[in-house]
Design a protein that fits this description.
With 706 residues, the protein is α+β, with helices and mostly antiparallel strands. It is built from 22 helices and 17 strands. A hairpin with a 2-residue loop joins strand 5 and strand 6. Helix 6 runs parallel beside helix 14 and helix 13 packs across helix 15. The longest helix is centred in the last third of the chain and has 55 residues. The model has no long low-confidence stretch (mean pLDDT 90). The structure holds adenosine-5'-diphosphate and magnesium ion. InterPro entries: Gln-synt_C (IPR040577), Gln_synt_N (IPR008147), Gln_synth/guanido_kin_cat_dom (IPR014746), Gln_synth_cat_dom (IPR008146), Gln_synth_gly_rich_site (IPR027303), GS_Type-3 (IPR052725), GSIII_N (IPR022147). One of its GO terms (biological process) is glutamine biosynthetic process.
């Protein structure tokens, strides 16, 4: 890879972006496509044919031999089916390269192998992918060749959404409609659309690939199922923002180059809190593009790592006892003429529109806290949320000192008359300039924090798509906006109606605001007093998908039908069952084939050496060795018993005749517990058994030696 280059030259070079379209497409075609993109107008087949042809020519110049409809089924990762551009051989024996408008617009992958949660019987396998022209096509080049990737939405024969993208696009539409309605009431006649902007910060771990390959748990489940903490953990806090080692830097550089070529504006990178943990943040983009880009980021992080002899771990909690990884979803609402609805301005207390929008966010989050929590749940995140570093499991909103003060004024007197200002920050060093600090400090413990002109939802898991959290955010906000507009449009005196509404909302939803330490025990008790839901796991979160409040909201706005929601709940239960079953089986395999035999050999050797010493020198004191042997044997016994219990429990779960919901709950309560019971003695053994005898790399090997 080129060492020195100009980023501007390579940025977006593999993207069929606006510049390429302007250059390549006939003017009329370009204009029609732009209308489709900006106004959602349907594209006629003739225009699509022209676009497809130009897209193909461009892709072939980039070395592409195939094209694929790139989509996001409910597996959390992307899927693709590759077709080559070649047409049927001509009489001359040669082939032409062809790609029609129809092939661009619509694909028909066999849908039966993707999760549908009972939406479709397997004999009704038809599924369609439909081009999303608002997310640009791109050519992915790698060692395997080059492919034209066309971002698409994926739905069933009868039109039900089978992916992340379809509901996301629906939610963006309705949010825009409702937000524009509100803007009109405030006298804005120019903005035509309101689009959510999203910047998803991605956390990940990097370890040596050899070590990864030596651990079946990492290979099969993405996380370590056994492993004791090294003597040095992250207590020194010396990794966060620490200087980046050369090997990692070379990796990040390659990742950036790949991403830039694909038009992903990778911007920030730094070491995270835990050893071997890092973060990558792109510049925010339109919501659906950001969701696509996050998938590209995850793919790229994985792929490039292998080239560097590294393994990228995207699991939320690869190492127990070490900080987990999340995805901070930064979200704001911006008009097509550049107004951010979450921008408070210098004196928020006078910014009535902002205050109303803010209170509507509070209402939306308060009312649908359970659903928001559900949207951030996946199997891996169960290991992370509620730990001491990740956001707590309780949803609350952090507003910061300044806004909380404005809110308090509103609630107590009905009007806010002042906003706290940031003071001068005196560093005490003459040569450093004094600067004005922000009126509000940051809060790292809140799951949903206002950070200046956006909200940062910090709960989503690192390996999950951010599709669902954004569908939920967009829809709950659309609902709150719509209800406000219904009322305000009828009001005789708009100003006083808005005023009353702000006060009422602030008072009613004050309970969701929490500026304190979200990690403290006191908060759990306080949240309970306030009646905020505390949902500890994925299986407890799933029911939020099908409550009356959820169903009626999604149906009202046409984002999900009841059937689609039920199918999603079903898929999540099934995924939970499958994942825990794989984890349990992996533990059984490792314990019985690797760990227990290794410990038996170690114990045997220990016993033999005690015998040898006693024979050679009867007066030698072998009590230390004997104590160790007793300890090892006891833990071994405990591990063996736990292994048997785990086998039986998992078998019982696997063969259980019950609904997915019941089954998943059994896995959660019984199998997970049996797994923990096996892990405990094994981790204790790892601490006392000779390192040479342990059959796999330790935490210390993996996270301190990258
Ligand atoms: P942090 O506040 O977490 O330290 P940044 O301010 O750099 O970090 O922003 C983190 C992410 O938020 C980036 O992806 C950034 O592009 C995105 N972001 C910044 N402003 C907005 C906005 N108005 N709307 C959505 N995302 C934003
Ligand atoms: Mg952040």
């Amino acid at each position: 890879m080129e060492r020195y280059f100009n980023v501007a030259d390579i940025f977006g070079e593999n993207v069929f972006n606006d510049t390429v379209m302007q250059e390549r497409l006939p003017k009329k075609t370009y204009q029609k496509l732009k209308q489709t993109i900006s106004e959602g107008k349907e594209l006629d087949l003739e225009t699509a044919d022209v676009i497809a042809h130009e897209m193909k020519e461009w892709a072939i110049e980039k070395g592409a031999t195939h094209y694929t409809h790139w989509f996001q089924p409910l597996t959390g990762i992307t899927a693709e089916k590759h077709d080559s551009f070649i047409s049927a051989p001509l009489p001359s024996g040669k082939v032409l390269m062809s790609f029609s408008g129809k092939e661009l617009i619509k694909g028909e992958p066999d849908a039966s192998s993707f999760p549908s949660g009972g939406l479709r019987a397997t004999f009704e396998a038809r599924g369609y992918t439909a081009w999303d022209p608002t997310s640009p096509a791109f050519v992915r080049q790698d060692a395997a060749g080059a492919t034209l990737c066309i971002p698409t939405a994926f739905c069933s024969y009868t039109g039900e959404a089978l992916d992340q993208k379809t509901p996301l696009l629906r939610s963006m539409e309705i949010l825009s409609e409702q937000a524009v309605r509100l803007l009109r009431l405030f006298g804005n006649t120019t903005s035509q659309r309101v689009t959510p902007s999203v910047g998803a910060e991605q956390e990940y771990f990097l370890i040596d690939r050899e070590m990864y390959l030596a651990r079946k748990d990492l290979m099969y489940t993405g996380r370590t199922l056994f492993g004791a903490m090294p003597p040095k953990g992250q207590e020194m806090d010396d990794h966060y923002f620490g200087s980046i080692p050369e090997r990692i830097e070379a990796y990040m550089r390659d990742v950036n180059i790949e991403l830039w070529k694909l038009g992903v504006s990778s911007k920030t990178q730094h070491n995270e809190v835990a050893p071997a943990q890092h973060e990558l943040a792109p510049i925010y983009a339109q919501c659906n593009v950001a969701v696509d880009h996050n998938q590209i980021i995850m793919e790229t992080l994985r792929k490039v790592a292998n080239r560097h002899g590294l393994q990228c771990l995207l699991h939320e909690k690869p190492f127990s006892g070490v900080n987990g990884s999340g995805k901070h979803n930064n979200w704001s609402l911006v008009t097509d003429d550049g107004i951010n609805l979450f921008e408070p301005g210098k004196s928020p207390h006078e910014n009535i529109q902002f205050l109303l929008v803010l209170c509507l966010v509070l209402k939306a989050v308060d009312r649908h806290a359970d659903l928001l929590r559900e949207s951030a749940s996946d199997v891996g995140n169960d290991q992370r949320l509620g730990g001491n570093e990740a956001p707590p499991v309780i949803i609350s909103v952090y507003l910061g000192e300044q806004l909380e003060d404005v809110l308090t004024q509103l609630i107590s007197t009905g009007t806010a008359t002042k906003s706290k200002k940031g003071e001068k920050l005196a560093t005490g060093v003459k040569t450093l300039p004094d600067f004005r600090k922000d009126a509000t400090d940051r809060n790292r413990t809140s799951p949903f924090a206002f950070t200046g002109n956006k909200f940062e939802f910090r709960m989503p898991g690192s390996q999950d798509s951010v599709g669902e959290p954004n569908v939920v955010l967009n829809t709950i906000m659309a609902e709150a906006l719509s209800e406000a507009c219904d009322e305000l449009e009828k009001a005789k005196d708009f100003d006083s109606a808005v005023h009353d509404m702000i006060k009422k909302l602030a008072t009613e939803h004050q309970r969701i605001v929490f500026n304190g330490n979200g990690y403290g025990e006191e908060w759990i008790a306080e949240a309970e007093k306030r009646g905020l839901p505390s949902i500890n796991s994925l299986v407890e979160a799933i029911p939020a998908l099908t409550t009356d409040a959820t169903v009626s909201m999604f149906e009202k706005f046409g984002v999900f039908s009841k059937v689609e929601l039920e199918s999603r709940a079903e898929i999540e239960y099934e995924q939970y069952i499958k994942s825990i079953n794989i984890e349990a089986r992996t533990m059984i395999d490792m314990a019985s084939k690797q760990i227990i035999p290794a410990v038996i050999s170690y114990a045997t050797e220990l016993g033999l050496s005690i015998g040898t010493i006693a024979d050679a020198c009867p007066e030698a004191d072998v009590s230390t060795q004997k104590e160790l042997l007793v300890k090892v044997s006891n833990y071994l016994r405990e591990a063996k018993d736990a292994l048997i219990t785990l086998k039986e429990t998992n078998e019982k779960a696997y063969t259980m005749k019950a609904s997915s919901c019941e089954k998943a709950n059994f896995y959660h309560s019984d199998v997970v517990k049996a797994m923990e019971d096996l892990r405990r003695p094994v981790d204790a053994l790892e601490m006392i058994v000779d390192k040479e005898a342990w059959p796999m790399p330790s935490y210390g090997d993996m996270i301190f030696e990258v």
